[in-house]
Write a structure and sequence with these properties.
One of its GO terms (cellular component) is membrane. By secondary structure, this protein is mostly beta strands. Helix content is 10%, strand content 43%. It has helices at residues 6-24, 334-343, 345-354; strands at 26-28, 32-35, 40-42, 45-47, 52-62, 69-75, 78-81, 91-93, 104-106, 115-124, 127-138, 142-147, 157-167, 172-176, 184-192, 198-206, 216-222, 230-235, 245-251, 254-259, 266-271, 280-283, 286-289, 298-306, 309-317, 364-365.
Length: 378
């Protein structure tokens, strides 16, 4: 080194030695991906170092705290948190200072922990050597299956809706429609939330005819944040107002009102234009006539109703006075009654005198006032 002073020569030699040492050093880290709620391991290993290791420190820049800050230091005296940062019981030092291993563990990871973690080795005399470790947090979706309460009709509506809320990355939704393939279709939308998660909503659309009622479909949700796909079964229900209202005789003096409806109809009995008689009892859908007296005479109405509509049917009761203690005429067409009266005059006279009527124990529909009616004494 002609023309170089001894001091400069020594400095240059030391610099070259440090430079070659630095070039041989390497801090090994990596990328970390974990599902929310799980445990993240941050690997950090210094290799090729012969210098003195003074300390290992950690910095983090996360969703919760976007500013880079020191939060953990490993000294010869042991690991410690810096100014209480990160001291929530979730971080654990799993490395070894002597082995130049600064690895950390983070428990119960949340989306707010996502960000960049920096592992820093401080050596003498070369100084600081570091690596950045990105933490990616996966968030499984919250799945919800909702009945859209389709009402029986002939226009396309939403039958059922499947939601995968708050997923990272976005979840995918598909449908298994079985026997309804080609008769229903999917409509799917996705919305990006403020916290970078995505909510995916998929509806199954179809014309709500009787053919769809009771059919099984399945919503299938998949996501990288889930260990396996989730299948949510659903049986399609069609909703409709009372369609047919029938009054059935269950025993002598006892009648039940039944209606086809979904949801099931609420049944109420009332008396048209007259106060309710003491000898008649109404219990939900059942009307019971306890004593066959003329005060029961009149028109009774059974009303079936739900939130989609109502329908009613009527029953006319007539108890004759005198010796007849249980005489009934229940809705019948006028012309049938006239013909029947002529054809069965003798039998009717006998029944009137005896005051007896034979009752069937079977549940048989009784005639109603769907057509013009006339009271008849038997």
């Amino acid at each position: 080194m002609h023309g170089v002073s001894p001091a400069a020569s020594v400095f240059l030699s030391v610099f070259m030695l440090i430079q070659s040492t630095v070039e041989a050093l390497q801090v090994i880290g990596g990328n970390v991906t974990v599902v929310q709620g799980g445990t993240a391991n941050f690997p950090c290993q210094l290799i090729g170092a012969t210098e003195t290791l003074n300390q290992i420190s950690w910095q983090k820049k996360t969703r919760e705290k976007p500013q880079n800050n020191n939060f953990f230091t490993i000294l010869k005296t042991g690991p410690q948190f810096v100014n209480g940062n990160g001291d929530d019981g979730r971080f654990k030092f799993i490395g070894d200072l002597k082995a130049k291993n600064g690895s950390l563990q983070l428990f119960r990871v949340t989306l707010m922990d996502e960000g960049t973690y920096t592992c820093i080795f401080t050596l003498f005399p070369s100084g600081i050597h570091k690596t950045e470790i990105p933490l990616n947090v996966l968030v499984p979706p919250v799945t919800i299956l909702k009945d859209d309460h389709p009402i029986l009709g002939n226009e396309e509506v939403s039958l059922v809706t499947c939601t995968a809320a708050g997923s990272k990355p976005p979840a995918a939704i598909s449908w298994l429609t079985g026997a309804l393939t080609g008769k229903v279709r999917e409509a799917t939308t996705s919305t990006l939330n403020a916290n970078s998660t995505t909510t995916t909503i998929s509806s199954l659309l179809g014309v709500p005819t009787r053919e769809l009622d009771g059919q099984l479909v399945k919503c299938v949700v998949t996501s990288a944040a889930m260990t396996m796909e989730e299948t949510l079964p659903f049986t399609i229900q069609l909703y409709f107002p009372p369609m047919e209202v029938t009054i059935l005789e269950t025993s002598e003096g006892s009648f039940i009102c039944e209606a086809e409806a979904n949801p099931p109809a609420n049944i109420t009995w009332s008396r048209i234009d007259l106060p309710w008689p003491q000898s008649a009892v109404r219990e939900d859908a059942v009307l019971r006539l306890k004593e066959m007296t003329p005060d029961l005479n009149g028109l009774y109405q059974c009303k079936a109703s739900n939130q989609h509509g109502s329908k009613q049917q009527q029953l006319r009761v007539y108890v004759a006075s005198g010796n007849c203690t249980a005489c009934w005429v229940l809705f019948s067409l006028l012309f049938i009654l006239i013909v029947a009266a002529v054809a069965a005059a003798a039998a009717a006279g006998y029944l009137y005198k005896s005051g007896r009527i034979q009752w069937s124990g079977d549940r048989q529909p009784v005639p109603t006032n769907s057509s013009p009616l006339e009271e008849q004494q038997v």
